């Protein structure tokens, strides 16, 4: 079974995000970038399927600028076999990414596509679902457990009321939640090996896909500063404070 995993280059989750002075977006110049954490979980899930003898090949795919090759190298260091970069210097929205991924899916013909449930930069959480619709494939989102047996994919997914279990007939699409796994620590030998693995670079405009943006960002601003807390002397004072501040009866 061939597995395709989508990965995205985002601002590292340990970095304090700063808004540009002109309010046009988030500052990314001289900022540490890394693989989206949910996508890292997706790569780990795919590699574990290969280690279990279920997957025959794991392909990591990223859509974005040329620097996204660094992100693909991380996926290759985790254990992916090869990478594909759909190079595009313009900002891509979920619909455009899904269209580009669909073109790669048609070329590679994977039996399973795994993606992170959302990216930590825009928090859209839409790409996997849109891709499933474009490819007309069954999907299981927010997966906390993935099993494959008797040509059936069994996915446990988290929902508001607890969890539910779905059975999917591949080819299928799965998006990963935090509790699916804990990605392995990437060792130096793995990083060295990743440098020797192939990455195919494909120009986005060569795929005959409409990636025009339909959304315009008018302004980006930081959230208002949080008001400092206050101390009260006792419970009665606390109740009075709550009544005066938030109209609690």
From TrEMBL:
<feature type="domain" description="Electron transfer flavoprotein alpha/beta-subunit N-terminal">
    <location>
        <begin position="23"/>
        <end position="211"/>
    </location>
</feature>
<dbReference type="InterPro" id="IPR014730">
    <property type="entry name" value="ETF_a/b_N"/>
</dbReference>
<dbReference type="InterPro" id="IPR014729">
    <property type="entry name" value="Rossmann-like_a/b/a_fold"/>
</dbReference>
<protein>
    <recommendedName>
        <fullName>Electron transfer flavoprotein subunit beta</fullName>
    </recommendedName>
</protein>
<keyword id="KW-0813">Transport</keyword>
<dbReference type="InterPro" id="IPR012255">
    <property type="entry name" value="ETF_b"/>
</dbReference>
<comment type="similarity">
    <text>Belongs to the ETF beta-subunit/FixA family.</text>
</comment>
<keyword id="KW-0249">Electron transport</keyword>
<dbReference type="InterPro" id="IPR033948">
    <property type="entry name" value="ETF_beta_N"/>
</dbReference>
<dbReference type="InterPro" id="IPR000049">
    <property type="entry name" value="ET-Flavoprotein_bsu_CS"/>
</dbReference>
<dbReference type="Pfam" id="PF01012">
    <property type="entry name" value="ETF"/>
</dbReference>
């Amino acid at each position: 079974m061939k597995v395709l995993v989508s990965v995205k280059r985002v601002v590292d989750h340990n970095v304090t995000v700063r808004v540009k002075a002109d309010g046009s977006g988030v500052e990314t110049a001289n900022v540490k970038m890394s693989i989206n954490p949910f996508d890292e979980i997706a790569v780990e899930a795919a590699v574990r399927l290969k280690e279990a003898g279920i997957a025959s090949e794991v392909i990591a795919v990223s859509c974005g600028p040329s620097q996204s090759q660094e992100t693909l190298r991380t996926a290759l260091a985790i254990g992916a076999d090869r990478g594909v970069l759909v190079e595009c210097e313009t900002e891509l929205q979920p619909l455009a990414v899904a269209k580009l991924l669909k073109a790669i899916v048609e070329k590679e013909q994977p039996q399973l596509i795994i993606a992170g449930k959302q990216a930590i930069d825009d928090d859209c959480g839409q790409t996997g679902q849109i891709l499933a619709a474009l490819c007309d494939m069954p999907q299981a989102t927010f997966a906390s457990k993935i099993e494959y047996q008797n040509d059936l994919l069994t996915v446990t997914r988290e929902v508001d009321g607890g969890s539910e279990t779905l059975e999917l007939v591949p080819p299928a699409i799965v998006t990963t939640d935090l509790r699916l796994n804990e990605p392995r620590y990437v060792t130096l030998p793995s990083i060295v090996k990743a440098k020797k693995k192939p990455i195919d670079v494909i120009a986005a405009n060569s795929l005959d896909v409409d990636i025009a943006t339909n959304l315009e960002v008018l302004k980006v601003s930081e959230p208002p500063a949080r008001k400092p807390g206050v101390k009260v002397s006792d419970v009665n004072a606390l109740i009075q404070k709550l009544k005066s501040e938030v109209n609690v009866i």
